[in-house]
Amino acid sequence: RLSALAAVKEQISATSCVGVDGTTSTCGGSPKPPSSIPSYLLSIRGGGLDEDYYDEYDEDSDYDFDDDDFAFDEDDMEAAEDDFGEGGISERLLAAYEKTPPFTKAYLTASAAVAALGYLTNGNQFPAIFLLDWKSVLTKMQIWRPFTAFLNIGPFGLGYAMTAQFVWTYMATLERMNHSHPYDFWLMIFFGCASMVAGYSFLKIPPTFLGHNLSTFLVYVWSRYHEGLEVNMFELFTARAEMLPWLFLAQTFLLEGVFPTLDLLGILFGHIYHHLWTTNALKAPKFIINWYNGDSASGKAIKEKYKRISSDFEMEGQ
């Protein structure tokens, strides 16, 4: 089809044109618009056609096109369905979800489930039974609250989708980096969560969106792992990776109009973790390492999930 179009273009460019004075000249030699300005911008309406256009191509015209040159075959139709059909989008999303590392997948799945529960039963607000409340933890033994509070990354909506994508990007990347020793990643998550719970309680700061603040902790740790890397910011400009958490902190201040205290604490705890980790002052407990590398059924099941990630790295290295 491309060769047919090229042949037609060549034939049209060689056609004689009649000038105003009655002389003939070659159309191909006529000047063209500058290449930097698309031709459709030079017309009043890019989608409109001059009435004389149809008169030039009558039944006796030399420019008879073969329908086969521009017809779609089955392969083209299948490719179009894959690219633009609903099935193609859903399949890509499902494939991305399936390739998500186990901890990140479990975290985002649980967060979406609880957010959906709040949307259906609590006016799109995070269910109070899952929020952090030390009185309920100590007097009613609701020990899940310090953990489930981190599932709160906001109510359902555009903000939730953006934050979930943000968490998925950096949490999944850090988990993949530790695919051969995931207990180090688990330690990082535990340190970040424990630091925030203790810090917010000590400073008497209401822990509203702990999941959002956990993402700030994650992006700071990620930025320290990738110092010097150029990062594309919303297709607007590039910045070095170590500047990324500070740019998002400024974004919170500008868009929400509040001083980003919680984001600053996330950066602070991320810096403390990175210092302790690089100086070998913080290491995964031996009993966790032995459990993961042991013969227990649960340890083997989790190890099998991480083997899939390891095989992906091996395939990329070949």
Describe the model.
This protein has 318 residues and is mainly alpha-helical. The protein contains 15 helices and 4 strands. It has helices at residues 2-13, 52-56, 67-70, 74-84, 86-98, 102-121, 134-139, 145-148, 158-177, 182-203, 210-225, 244-256, 261-278, 286-293, 297-317, and strands at 16-18, 24-26, 230-233, 237-240. β3 (230-233) and β4 form a beta hairpin. α4 (74-84) packs across α5 and α10 packs across α11 (210-225). It is globular.
Strand order of the largest sheet: 1-2
Order of helices and strands: HEEHHHHHHHHHHEEHHHH
> What is the straight-line distance between the termini?
37 Å
Q: Beta fraction of the residues?
A: under 5%
* Helical proportion, percent range: 55-70%
Low-confidence stretches: 1-72
How is this structure best summarized?
Helices cover 61% and strands 4% of the residues. The protein has helices spanning 2-13, 52-56, 67-70, 74-84, 86-98, 102-121, 134-139, 145-148, 158-177, 182-203, 210-225, 244-256, 261-278, 286-293, 297-317; strands spanning 16-18, 24-26, 230-233, 237-240.
Give me the secondary-structure topology.
Blueprint: H1 2-13, E1 16-18, E2 24-26, H2 52-56, H3 67-70, H4 74-84, H5 86-98, H6 102-121, H7 134-139, H8 145-148, H9 158-177, H10 182-203, H11 210-225, E3 230-233, E4 237-240, H12 244-256, H13 261-278, H14 286-293, H15 297-317
Antiparallel strand pairs: 1-2, 3-4
Helix pairs in contact: 4-5, 6-9, 9-11, 10-11, 10-13, 11-12, 11-13
